[in-house]
Amino acid sequence: MNNPYLFLTDLAQQVEIPRDGILSRTLYQDEHVKVVLFGFDKGQDLSEHTASMPALLHFVQGEADLTLGTDQRIATAGTWVYMTPNLPHSVVAKTPVVMLLVLLR
Q1: Complete domains list, the chain, with CATH
Q2: How many CB atoms lie within 10 A of CB 45?
Q3: In angstroms, rounded to a whole number, what is the distance separating the alpha carbons of residues 40 and 46?
Q4: What is the distance between the alpha carbons of residues 99 and 77, in angstroms, rounded to a whole number?
Q5: 76 closest CA partner among 97, 103, 55, 102
Q6: Could you give the CA distance from residue 29 to residue 26 in angstroms, rounded to a whole number?
Q7: What are the C-alpha distances in Å from 16 to residues 47, 59, 91?
């Protein structure tokens, strides 16, 4: 990146939600962080998995069922989550969803 910053005015406009699918787009990455924007159509899911590093989730739009370890939560626009490494988690979109994932290296 040639600029010392990345400025995006509307995250929801940075990813098109595919019909009957999930799309991910890496917005930024360096040796400290990887930032990925996801677009989920209604009913799409990321099955249970873990990340080997701390992670942040920010739900930009939509509503999703979110599993964090053994806890079940509902995520809506504005929901923000910090996850420790190796926490099992999953996401199921109840409506079309835009979600920002930040992996901390």
Answers
A1: 21-104 (2.60.120.10)
A2: 13
A3: 9
A4: 9
A5: 97
A6: 7
A7: 21, 15, 18
Query: pLDDT tens-digit profile of 25-74?
Result: 999 999 999 999 999 999 999 999 999 999 999 999 999 999 999 999 99
Q: Which residue has the tokens 């990813």?
A: 15
Query: Token pair 């996401």 is at which residue?
Result: 91
Structure tokens at 92: 């199921």
Place of tokens 């992996």: 103
Q: In 3-state terms, what secondary structure has residue 65?
A: strand
Q: Are 55 and 104 in contact (CB under 8 A)?
A: yes
0.90 exceeded by the pTM? yes
Dihedral sign (CA 7, 64, 97, 48): positive
Tokens (6 digits) for 84: 């420790």
CA angle 98, 99, 103 (to 5 degrees): 155
Tell me the pairing of strands 55-61 and 97-104.
Answer: antiparallel
